[in-house]
């Protein structure tokens, strides 16, 4: 009988292989999120998120920062996903909920509410009553990066979390809105990991761009839409207006088969 070596121990949360090992073994989003929030695989991001948490802005001096990876937010049977970039240092990194507690989130959730996909137009903190209808909000990088700029290596290390999230959403997912060029570039290979076949060559990002990914043996057809990111740089200059984002979200909701009347 052939001898076998000892079973390999799971990687520690601070090892680069931690996301790939645990993301692939999760049977549901709750389990995925539980492993994700313990991740310490990117030293630069860990140092930054904790440094920010230890030195809060004056306006948040009385608050304890989350200062950990931020999981996706929304129902497990979402038909529409919204993909951003990464948590903001004093937004999601503070509150522990994606796009919550900063100006970008205010802009996004106000638009989702206008379309009828969110219970309220504001997102202050977990427990504030915000509920999303058929939508899950997530990002390709789950820790706040310095200057809002993750490195390609950090994006690659974090990729298994998003691939697993899309794999778990896959049976009901019908449309995705991608906020910004970084998310667009990061998501296309993730969709391949999750069972779809992204077009080649990869299409360029643009506001209002729309693609239809055909059904595969594993997945239903998927519609992919691009929008400028609701960063203050874009919203203050008028590059992205509320009406522009509402239009993209309305189109995505229709493609996903979601109601666009407020409950």
TrEMBL record:
Which InterPro entries does UniProt cross-reference here?
Answer: UDG_Type-4/5 (IPR051536), UdgB-like (IPR044147), Uracil-DNA_glycosylase-like (IPR005122), Uracil-DNA_glycosylase-like_sf (IPR036895)
**Superkingdom to which the source organism belongs:** Bacteria
Family matches, as SMART domains: UDG, UreE_C
Keywords noted in UniProt:
4Fe-4S, DNA damage, DNA repair, Hydrolase, Iron, Iron-sulfur, Metal-binding
**Is Chloroplast one of the keywords?**
no
Say which family it is in: Belongs to the uracil-DNA glycosylase (UDG) superfamily. Type 5 (UDGb) family.
Protein name as annotated: Type-5 uracil-DNA glycosylase
A Pfam family cross-referenced in the UniProt record is UDG
Domain annotation Uracil-DNA glycosylase-like: ranges = 71-249
List the top taxonomic levels of the source.
Answer: Bacteria, Bacillati, Actinomycetota, Actinomycetes, Kitasatosporales
Annotated coiled-coil positions are none
Task: Output the CDD domains linked to this UniProt entry.
Answer: UDG-F5_TTUDGB_like
């Amino acid at each position: 009988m052939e001898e076998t070596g000892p079973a390999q121990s799971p990687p520690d949360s601070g090892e680069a292989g931690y996301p790939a090992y645990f993301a692939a073994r999760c049977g549901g989003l709750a389990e995925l999120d539980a492993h994700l929030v313990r991740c310490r695989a990117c030293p630069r991001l860990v140092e930054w998120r904790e440094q920010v948490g230890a030195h809060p802005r004056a306006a948040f001096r009385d608050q304890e920062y989350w200062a950990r990876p931020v999981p996706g937010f929304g129902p497990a049977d979402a038909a529409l996903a919204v993909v951003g970039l990464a948590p903001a240092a004093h937004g999601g990194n503070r509150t522990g909920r994606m796009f919550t507690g900063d100006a970008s989130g205010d802009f996004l959730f106000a638009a989702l509410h206008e379309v009828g996909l969110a219970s309220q137009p504001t997102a202050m903190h977990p427990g504030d009553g915000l509920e999303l209808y058929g939508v899950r909000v997530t990002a390709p990088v789950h820790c706040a990066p310095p200057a809002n700029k993750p490195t390609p290596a950090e994006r690659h290390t974090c990729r298994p979390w998003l691939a697993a999230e899309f794999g778990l959403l896959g049976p009901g997912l019908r449309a995705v809105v991608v906020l910004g060029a970084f998310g667009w570039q990061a998501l296309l290979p993730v969709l391949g990991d999750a069972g779809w076949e992204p077009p080649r060559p990869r299409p360029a990002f643009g506001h209002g761009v729309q693609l239809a990914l055909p059904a595969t043996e594993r997945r239903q057809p998927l519609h992919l839409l691009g929008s400028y990111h609701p960063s203050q740089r874009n919203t203050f200059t008028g590059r992205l207006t509320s009406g522009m984002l509402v239009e993209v979200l309305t189109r995505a909701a229709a493609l996903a088969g979601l109601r666009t009347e407020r409950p």
